Amino acid sequence: MNDSQLHYSFPPMSEYVLGNGLRSIWLPDTEQPVIEVLFQVPSGRAHVPAGLEGLSDLTANLMQKGPSSMGHEEYIDTLEQVGASHVLDSGDEHTTFGIRVLARHADDIVPKFWETVTSPAFDDKEFRRMKREMVTALEAEFSDASVLANKHFQAELYGKDHPLGRIPCVNSVKRARLDDVRSFCASHVSPANASIVVAGDRSIEGMEQQWKRPFGAWKGGTVRRASPFPETAPVVENRIRLVDKPDSSQTTLVIGHPSVGEAHPFRNALALGNYVLGGGSFRSRLMAQMRSRAGKTYGIASQLVTGRGAGTFLMSTTTQSGQVDEVLNTIIEVYRDVTENGITEEELDNAKRFAIGNLAFQLEGIGNVAEKILWLRFYGYPNSYIEKYGSTIAGIDLAAVNTALRNALASRGFVICAVGKREEIAPKLGRFGPIRVVNLRAEP
């Protein structure tokens, strides 16, 4: 690979912290006549009070229904007339609000968006409608085996005493009151813990002249800074949760264990190893063994999910219920082979090429660049982390990857979640350890 593939340079930008504590980043780009504003706080689904799971999503969605100075319909109509659109990314540990608008309309629209952040209407009628929509969406998930499997896997892995183990459900959303939304917003949305990026077709000076003063004028409340979530205990023996779905002829499986967080020294080496194990589509070991050779499934993948503190490794697939035990055996055998014996130099080269090449797609367009900058700030990384990412990945050798696999993925036991027909799969799953059966509609 040449130097141009290994190095990236962010566009010129200006960055500083305003007097109210808000980190502001000004990022000009003239490729498209668009302005995008992204506002991020380091709080999300896992920061809500126990019993009110889903509250962060309710809050984020309700904030986008308009500012206190305008009615909901008037606000939405104003956006639609100029083709503006909201951006919303609500995760376990962060929430990002945004607006995307043609540059010629930005002077009118951005202040209105900013008021949805600093003074949201929190209209009771919209709140009740939003709750109904969330409940309907959660009810629909009972027919989606993949969603159910992932929810129950996370709940089983972390448990209800860990913030990541508490999953939104119908009852928790119904339980929420509008006062809970107001309280969550006041406690977690403040300039003191937030970052904002303004990106698009205007000079840095022009952006600052128009929006620096209103951004800095927001006082907000006092917020408690969220700490990274602790790692959960290793899985020393298999724990199996069977979600009984009587009408299913197939079984969806999620199998995994705790892993490292984003800032762990093994993180990048482990990601390369995971690409070989199951992250690399048809070129992965799991796919080659399960689909190409054994013909047991149409697709299987592994994933490394990294938070600021805790991380999760998981493998997922769907197969015919009659061969659940064979599939699980094969998954575990491939996992053990990779973690104990490592990968090859050729496989590592393929993984590196993918990781370096894929970064270009992540940075395509000024909106993606703005999102990546917020990602860097969330994890406390400098811009050079991305600018030198290609050379960092290229410099990881085979020994480092195989060491990471042995140390971070060599779990003695697994959390196994299966969604399928109990009477067909329980005897087969029982060969891997004790089973806890839960009703399809049970809360995770």
Count of runs of 4 or more consecutive helical residues? 18
Written as H for each helix and E for each strand, in order along the chain, the element string is HEEEHHEEHHHHHEHEEHHEEHHHHHHEHE
> Which whole number gives the mean pLDDT?
94
Low-confidence parts, pLDDT < 50 over ≥5 residues?
Answer: none
- Beta-strand percent range: 15-25%
Q: Note the main sheet.
A: 6 strands, mixed
Alpha carbon gap, first and last residue = 47 Å
Instruction: Describe the strand arrangement of the main beta sheet, using strand numbers.
Output: 1-2-6-3-5-4
- Output the CATH class name of the largest domain: Alpha Beta
Rg from Cα: 23 Å
Shape: globular
Q: Total number of β-strand segments?
A: 12
Instruction: State the helical fraction.
Output: 40-55%
How many domain units? 2
Decide which structural class fits the backbone. alpha+beta
CATH superfamily caption of the largest domain: Metalloenzyme, LuxS/M16 peptidase-like
CATH architecture label name of the largest domain: 2-Layer Sandwich
CATH topology of the largest domain: Cytochrome Bc1 Complex, Chain A, domain 1
